[in-house]
Design goal:
Elements lengths: L13 H8 L3 H10 L7 E2 L5 E2 L2 H16 L4 H8 L13 H30 L7
Antiparallel strand pairs: 1-2
Length: 130
């Protein structure tokens, strides 16, 4: 009986990715749609999702940005994108710089709000049920 080639790097199922990252399977599927430029899992013969190490790392990075640092999905997408292309003179246009500054400020303010809410929740008295 002939065996197929062995993968050089590990390939993970969605359940294994969930176990590695703590991200629920339904969230991983949702993020595949929201971050389609970054998450394109392989498919098995049975059409099951298979993830390589780079994709698992990207899922971990999205999880950190959204759940730990408080980024919106759009903010996380921007954070994952490489730097904006520059024009022929080697500098970005003024409008592009203003857009980037506005996005950065928005992300910063959302992150600070997220941190404040977390801090307030941590200081709330817990009600105990007797």
């Amino acid at each position: 009986m002939a065996k197929g080639p062995i993968a050089a790097e590990p390939i993970y199922s969605i359940s294994q990715v969930h176990a590695l990252t703590g991200v629920p399977k339904s969230t991983i599927r949702f993020w595949e749609k929201e971050f389609s430029d970054f998450l394109n899992p392989l498919r098995s013969v049975g059409n099951q999702r298979r993830y390589d190490r780079d994709t698992v790392e990207t899922i971990s990075k999205i999880n950190r940005l959204v759940n730990d640092e408080g980024y919106t999905l759009e903010g996380a997408r921007r954070k994952l994108r490489p730097a904006a292309p520059v024009n022929q003179t080697g500098t970005s246009s003024g409008e592009a710089k203003m857009d980037e500054l506005a996005e950065t400020m928005s992300d910063y303010l959302l992150q600070k709000l997220f941190e404040r809410v977390r801090a307030e929740e941590a200081h709330k008295p817990r009600l105990s049920v007797k």
